Amino acid sequence: MRPSNLIALLARGGKGTLGDFIVNQFFAYLAIEAPDVVKNTKFLREITDLRFPSEWAPDARKVQRRIIMHVGPTNSGKTHNALQRLRAAKSGIYCSPLRLLAYEVYSRLISDGIPCALVTGEDRRIPDFGKLGIEPSGYTVTGQPISRMVSCTVEMAPNAPYHVAVIDEIQMIADQSRGWAWTNALLSLRADEIHLCGEPSAVPLVKRICASLDEEVEVHEYSRLGALEVSPDSLGGKWSNVQKGDCVVAFSRREIFNIKAKIEKAAGLRCAVIYGGLPPETRAEQARLFNDPDSGYDVLVASDAVGMGINLKINRVVFTTLSKWDGDMVRPISVSQTRQIGGRAGRHNSGVDRGRVTTLEAVDVDRLDEIMGLQPHQLRVAGLKPPTEVIEVFSRQFPKVSFSQLWSMFCDIASVSDNYFLCNFRDQEAIASTIGHLGLSIRDMYQFIYAPINCRDIIVRNCLVHCATAVARKIECKAASVICLPKAKPKTRQDLIAFEQWHRAITLYLWLSFHFPETFTEYDGALVFKGQCEEIIQAGLLLPDSPSVPKRSSALFAGKGVAKPEDVLEEQGVPKARKKFSVGLKTQLEALGKPRKVAKTN
Question: Would you give the DSSP letter of residue 384?
Fold first, then answer.
């Protein structure tokens, strides 16, 4: 391949796509130069062949499915129309990108007298059929009533037949970390009708995937309900120009609280706050305060967490910046994200005739106007994650290799087709590195690495080690042995961070209680801790800003029963992006075939 083609490949698919191409070319080279290595790696290549993910869902292939896409901008009614079809169905499922949105649809259906179950990673709710006066559609082998409707997070979609399925935010199928969940839902749901809601950018990719399944796609296009305009008048850098009904957008927790304090001082308007680190319940409460005209909260200061999942009565969105830190570097926010956040202004039935979008500084207005007029690039590939069974077979070939190293080796050698990519499993690698020494089985480890946590949170990471140890030793893990909230209420923003981490640790316990019910037996007790923590966090949002913020709060490591920091990796030891070709795979290939030439070429 010519160098110019490699550059084009890098531009089109990024470092991951280029790396996969180089690895595949490397193995083609080995077939000629080192056939002894190829002989030993041929079986590994067969194991890691992920080119035909449709074959992972044979039951879905037996259903003649009708695929309907509802595409359009934010506030166009696309999801509403799909949900209307769901309401009328004999049975159905709604797959949400967020727990908060899954709960909202669940609550709406219940309030309309439609029995609906809620299924998320850490919550299961069965409707009260007696109260609704409706018979369940059946019973499980354990005697639990079965609901004809389910509202769930997309990762938790049950494997059951339905008449209608709704998958929301289908453009997330290309997300680097979570895209696999949308791909799995699209390929695996057994429904007569599957309604996909999202951006038009997803249409060509979905059509190609469905064509490979011999399924046709109907596309319904929607226009925005209500006008949206980019205001030429910025705030001029002055917080005093913030108005009632504004949503001021920033991309870091520290900035959100700094801006909140400045607005309240300069404009005299009380601010609610929403950011990703807050529990979903707290975000919902902050949204309620902002939406309520009598609450005394006039302005919302928020991160990109407002882009989806929360109904907000926003008159004007104000971007403080058009770039954000992505974990590696500061980058411009994408066209899709900018339009989705900006589109939250002037939502239908919000009480304003048109929404407005602007910036803090005048220098950014023209750029914002340009971005809002663009369409997101068409999606090229959908995310994948390998099935558990595939990982188990692969692991048997290297019984003495740690799971974290095994995972990196698998990603190095795996092959996918043109419509797919292997998701970025950086968080999973961090989890595997943290608990890989505890002696978990491959199947149990594979459950743990998809826990909804971030290993950068020291409290959460310590609780992870404690919980994984209990599973490895096959002993009961009570909620109080993992969760011990600090007795002192938060006095600083940093103390509040500690309680936010404790809430995520509690969520981890709840999530594990569904995956390992024989080990994590105190679901109800964990719920009590969860409620207490949410009350503390809600009150902590009212704290005045601290003039100085210590690096680590005294509350951070409070609580007995939790693994000490020295029992886990160093706090800054989160793995960096995986490098091709991994040293682990090279070493194992050498062990298989003693390929001297490989050693020279690397």
Answer: E
Tokens of 174: 């290309």
The DSSP result for 141-154, as a single string, is TTS-EE-SEEEEEG
Secondary structure letter of residue 438 according to DSSP: G
Nearest to 219 by CA among 108, 336, 78, 39: 78
Q: What is the dihedral of CA 161, 167, 170, 176, to 10 degrees?
A: -70
Q: What is the 3-state secondary structure (H, E, C) of 229-249?
A: EECCCCCCCCHHHCCCCEEEE
Beta bridge partners of 120: 123
In angstroms, how far is CA 41 from the centroid of its own chain? Answer: 34
From start to end of 478-594, where are the E strands? Answer: none
- Please, which residues have CB within 8 angstroms of residue 101's CB and are 6 or more apart in sequence? 168, 308, 309
**pLDDT tens digits along 2-31:** 666 666 656 656 666 666 677 667 666 666
Contacts (Cβ under 8 Å, ≥6 apart) of 568: 434, 461, 462, 464, 465
**Whose CA is closest to 246, among 294, 337, 312?**
312
Q: Are 359 and 317 in contact (CB under 8 A)?
A: no
Answer positive or negative: Cα dihedral of 132, 138, 144, 146. negative
For 378, the 3-state DSSP assignment is: coil
Residue 178 contacts residue 423 (beta carbons within 8 Å): yes
Strand 246-249 to 299-302 pairing: parallel
| Chain segment 247-281, per-residue pLDDT in tens | 999 999 999 999 999 999 999 999 999 998 899 88
Phi, psi of 218 (to 5 degrees): -95, 135
516, two tokens: 């390992």
Query: Cα–Cα distance between 527 and 531 in angstroms, integer?
Result: 6
Peptide bond into 516 cis (omega under 30): no
Check residue 214 and give left, alpha or beta (phi > 0: left; psi -120 to 50: alpha): left
Distance CA 244, CA 218 (A): 42
- Cα 161 from Cα 91, distance rounded (Å): 8
Please give the single-letter amino acid code of residue 526.
A
Instruction: State the Cα–Cα distance between residues 573 and 551, nearest whole angstrom.
Output: 17
pLDDT band at 602; cut points 50, 70, 90: very low
